[in-house]
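Notes, Module 5: Reading structure tokens.

Key idea: the token line is not a picture. It is a compressed description, and you learn to read it the same way you learned to read a sequence, by spotting repeated patterns. We will look at two proteins. The first is printed below with its tokens.
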Amino acid sequence: MEPQNMEVATLVQKIAGLHAAIAKLPSLSPSPEVDALFTALVTACVPPSPVDVTKLGPEAQRMREELIRICSDAEGRLEAHYSDVLNAFDNPLDHLDRFPYFSNYINLSKLEYELLVRHIPGLAPSRVAFVGSGPLPFSSLVLAARHLPNTLFDNYDRCAAANGRARKLVRADKDLCERMSFHTADVADLTDELGEYDVVFLAALVGMAAEDKAKVVAHLGKHMADGAALVVRSAHGARGFLYPIVDPEDIRRGGFDVMAVFHPDDEVINSVIIARKVVDTGANGFQNGHALALAAMPVMTPPCKMEANTLQKSEDIAKKELAF
């Protein structure tokens, strides 16, 4: 067996063992045992790897799909737990660093914002939507507080309890209370509302199967305004055991020009895809403009990063910069 194939086989075997251990847990709610197993899983998946999870055999694919569903469940429970912890304080936003992955959200939101302004010139959104915001909407909080201070945020989640928790987090901040709204809805049921947004952010776990994600993107493409931006979270390499991988071609088929794909190699786990709703200028203009945009799409992986040394900042510096 070639060294690269052996490395992939060893990694898949290790992840399969962790999957088996996690599947035996009586509960996925936060506990020392749960935390230790998921820490081991993330530690195994984050380093650069030659594995292409889309080319794994049927058994490994089934394991990966189940593992992503388990991770989604565990992530929801973790966020609900820490949302309750934070909401016990008079001003929850003063204690966000209690969440163990706080710095990851700081860096991911910064990355998404910098990619947006780089690839969508002149972007100055007055209203954005975050689909799949959950009980602990860190991304919206960071974007609203640090990067888009004059923008209105509409957060969508299918779970009313998650929205209830999220709404309490901003209760002590007058500015964010006025600019952030929380709506209980499935993205499939949103139509005219989607046309009101300059940017739509799509959370990684909205549409976990490839075909479901493609349907969500197609729905957004049908109802978003021409020229509006779409930010999609994906995964790359072994990180595809943690989150769904989004094919940029599915985004293109959904009616978008894919402007950039970025694969981090640091603590930011998610890849980021920046797209823009195609402006229909007639049959000829649509096809020509679409083809040109696709041909020019940059796929960026380190060291081809942006001027992004700031993504390497420590959590302490990130906390200071947040400044709610």
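Here is the second protein, with the sequence above and the tokens below, as before.
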Amino acid sequence: MSTLNAPFTVATVFSSNPFKGNPAAIIFLDTDQVPFDVLAGISRNFNQPMMTFIKPIEPLKPGQTTISTPVRWITATGKEVELCGHGSLAAAKAILSLPDIAGAGITEIQFQSTSRGIVRVNVVEGGLLEMVLPAGLTKPVSSEEAERISSIVNRAFGRQVKVNYVARGADNFEYVSFIVIDDSEDLGGSKVNTAVFGETGTKVNIVTSSASLKTSELKEQFVSRMFSPEVPGGEDSVCGSAHCLLVPYWYTQKNLERGTVNVAKQEIFVFQEFECQKTCHTSCDRDKRV
């Protein structure tokens, strides 16, 4: 049996603390040369919320400022996904940290996905990374489906929850259930049986509510949590791609000015001393980008 060798790293996104944020493993490997079952096995062994596979980076040319590379995202359960925000940011950081690339003046990394086209990560002021994602829309479900989803939410939260809106993602986001609950429900402080969301029939289940600007120090506009049977523990601590739907929805609901930057918070239940709140600076422009 031949031995497969490939460099890898594990990076945490949305936090400066290595034990917080949302981790992803990144491996530099030409996936065209490796069967999918091997890629899935690698992902299961790493057991990270996301495994990002990128092709080894070729030597830079004089004056080069952009790096373009194929990308694939595979979950810890061995399932390939169409788009992963935090996995892309982690991969960009891993590339920019390579000895031959660090400090070379790279300003943009283009990830060539198999189904979402090019996902761009830009290097902005202060060395921060800014990702450009497609803006998506939601479509309300039927009253019967809304009642079914609301029942699932009630059982997951272990109480009667005031559900204000139930929808599905439109266009390329049909695999998403989008659930808006009342801001009085304390989304971040609620203990949730994540396994119950496996009954919705969708891979991604976003639960969101408006934020209280009176009590928030960061003045975030909304809070959210993302539940999925395909991530370890059933909940993704920060789902970048969920904001493809969250940001346009709340910008419309709150009549926020397009192009302005606002703060979003994604939070999961805090167990003991482990702090799990994450904040993202988001904006939505007129060109249907987040």
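Summary for the second protein:
- The radius of gyration is 19 Å.
- DSSP finds four helices and 16 strands in the chain.
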